[in-house]
Specification:
The protein has 118 residues and is mainly α. It is built from five helices and three strands; from the N terminus they run αβααββαα.
Length: 118
């Protein structure tokens, strides 16, 4: 079975390659690691290490490391932390939830025992 690409003539293939090159030139901007680090808001060394060792999305053209804007978005999303509730929000939640009673009721002067001072 042959694919449609193998049946194309040389002129058709050249036209396809030219069209692909035009689309590629108009398309996505790629950033150097220093520029991408500024966009993401991190250090250049951390970004390079992430691309080389931890699998951050990136493009490599020979020895050149490049990041597209989509790569920058993905890296930021990977490292986004969920916000933790503030102390005020925790206090509101504690106040709103009913507490179970221990059965002893409120402390009255008769039930409070004091230790004599030694």
């Amino acid at each position: 079975m042959t694919s449609p690409e193998t049946k194309r003539t040389g002129a058709d293939r050249e036209a396809m390659i030219d069209a692909a090159m035009r689309v590629l030139e108009q398309g996505e901007v790629t950033l150097a690691p220093g520029e991408a680090a500024r966009v993401i808001g991190c250090g250049e060394r951390w970004l390079r290490d992430g691309a080389n060792q931890r699998g951050f999305p990136h493009h490599r053209f020979g020895k050149f490391l490049r990041f597209s804007l989509q790569d920058c978005r993905e890296i930021r999303e990977i490292h986004r932390e969920m916000t933790r509730p503030s102390a005020l929000a925790k206090a509101r939640r504690r106040k709103a939830t009913p507490r179970k009673s221990t059965g002893s009721g409120p402390a009255t002067p008769a039930t409070i025992r004091f230790k004599p001072a030694a």
